[in-house]
Predict the structure.
Amino acid sequence: MSTLDSMFTYSSVLEASDWTAGAFLIDAVTGVVVWSDVLYRIHGYQRGEVVPTVELVLAHKHPGDRAKIRELHTDLAEVGGYFSSYHRLIDSRQRERRVLTTGEAVLDANGRLFSITGIMVDLTSTVRAETERAARDAVAGAVRARAVIERAVGILMGRLSIGADAAFALLCVHSNHTNKKLAAIASQLVGLAEDARNAAVLTAFIHDLQRHTAHAAAERRGRPSEGLA
């Protein structure tokens, strides 16, 4: 069974040492279950510490996924074929792992389950790395958005001789009116202000900000907003 340890893997976000995948074989005739060394490690063991069985495999499944895994095993025993399952398992140290299992169930000539072979990929580190990267990107994006909004507020303060709160309100009202993100509006304003050739367009853009704010104020007062064009 040494071939079970001949695994070639690749991850775009992890080092090779962090990327684990193991193989397994379930002999349905004899009941023997064979794990590769990596599969022992995924379950929190070293080879020789336990004897893998179908019952042990199911016992390590997360309680929330165990019923579906049992159902999948029953279906495979009846019809065979290829399968794939993304689920959680709890290793011997009570650590939750996210795994992807794929393989094939083979039936004999009489339609009875003969064997199940496949691989289990431990995606725990990948999911964690992707989540952390997404969080970092979100924070970085928020910082960038805040910076450009502050620049837009400064431009409006200088052009209209108003305070920071009033300038920010102009951007917010325009955002609500046009259904555009605040950062996108601020970026547009900053882009226009950075090129002197856009002076006329910038003036018109700022006029739109003021017009939408005036309309919104009139609506709040319950009066028509004629003459605010």
Q: What stands out?
A: The longest strand covers residues 96-107. Helices lie at 37-42, 54-59, 63-79, 124-160, 164-178, 182-193, 199-221. The two ends are 81 Å apart (CA to CA).
